[in-house]
Prior knowledge:
There is one protein chain. By secondary structure, the protein is α+β, with helices and mostly antiparallel strands. Helices cover 47% and strands 22% of the residues. Helix 1 (4-17) crosses helix 3.
Amino acid sequence: xxxxxxxxxxxxxxxxxxxxxxxxxxxxxxxxxxxxxxxxxxxxxxxxxxxxxxxxxxxxxxxxxxxxxxxxxxxxxxxxxxxxxxxxxxxxxxxxxxxxxxxxxxxxxxxxxxxxxxxxxxxxxxxxxxxxxxxxxxxxxxxxxxxxxxxxxxxxxxxxxxxxxxxxxxxxxxxxxxxxxxxxxxxxxxxxxxxxxxxxxxxxxxxxxxxxxxxxxxxxxxxxxxxxxxxxxxxxxxxxxxxxxxxxxxxxxxxxxxxxxxxxxxxxxxxxxxxxxxxxxxxxxxxxxxxxxxxxxxxxxxxxxxxxxxxxxxxxxxxxxxxxxxxxxxxxxxxxx
Length: 337
């Protein structure tokens, strides 16, 4: 015995597979009367399905042209969301190729009704994303491989090149895939190092799925793990700064991949590893809250140099203003003379 919901979905499938179909034919296929068919059609229309009816002795039902998108049907908002997503993916270099992206957009436009098609084209032509393109490229086959491995909890063999240009072969259990700042990362358990590691996919030279499976740790947060790993990665300088603000304010000011934050009675301690102290000095000044540099002493020197440079720029501006005023005054005196 069929459930009413099943019958309604069957009506929708029949409408999708036929250009037009009569009420009598639907009633015959569903083993119900024509009045029940009309009720099913009304239910579909109430759900937003654009079913048109042709009245008369030889009347029939059909879906409005353009709204059929097997196996999906998009609302206006859904079509807009998909289009924006494709455009952003193309801007960030997430699409395999430009032709593939254009082909996907063209297929979506082809099945849309005329009015919605024009809206989507207007969005495509008008919207500009000021997003930074990645400085490295990752083969999309690797993205698919690691996505499948993480989703199926399947081990991966890979040949990996470290930042020191050293190649190693290892097997890992990838827990997820993270796209951050133009790069793909996968947090994983490394069987070579017997510990957790984060791998950049653009440094993977080769990868193959293995038959072995694994169990992902409960409540593992891939994004937070990757950001913490980046923030604690050793670099040229180790900076420790006391921010005289609340932990909530500090979290809003400091990017999670810059460093770690520790709440203390005196304030929030920021620990980070940076390559350049001049950049760190500018970052601290732009925070807009009082701070105390604990280490390294060279960071205090960088701050003093920054302050002196800004003061010099200010004096130069003031001097230029004074010169301009003197010139203008001289011109006025000549005019009076």
